[in-house]
Each structure stands twice: as structure tokens, then as C-alpha cells.
Structure prediction request, 102 residues.
Amino acid sequence: MTNLSRIILSGQTIDELEEYGMLETNYLTASQVKKTLSELNQITEQTLRDNFKPEVMNLKEVYCNPFDDSFFDYLLEYFNKVKDFYFDTAQQNKAVITYIIN
Prediction:
């Protein structure tokens, strides 16, 4: 499977923005957005369901709340929103910038 963590931390940074309190500003080029969308589109709801392990997430203290099977629908909703965003962005041939604010 592809490492899609580049959606948040691409490893391509814009260091000049740190002075504005943005700790790490990352970007994906328009062609990288299209590649990322292609990879996102390969992930089906069933693939997500098969890999959804709330007990492991709880052990690793992912986020601050305990997970159970009912949380899957919430995650699926936001996964689909990310896919929609990447679809729209790819259609417009635009890049993506992500950042973390301190």
C-alpha cells in the first residue's frame, strides 16, 4: 500500500511561513495531487472496514477518545470528504498546501 501520509506531511516544505506561526507548511504540486487522488480512489469502503481496528487504535492512544465499531461511519465520512477535496482540486489542476499552527 502507498504511504498517503503525504496528504498532511509531504516532506516538501515552505519554510518562509514559519515566521507567521505555521510550524510546518507542506505542499503537493498539481501533478502530485492527481497521483494522490488516484491512490485514494483505489481504497474502497471494504478496504477501510477490513483495516479498521478500534482496539489497536485505543492501545496506541490515537486521538483522545476511545474507539469502538460505531466510529467507523464517522471516519468514512471524513475519508470521503478528503477524496472529494482532492477530486475538486485535481479537476482544477491546483496544488495543495497544508500547515500546522502553533
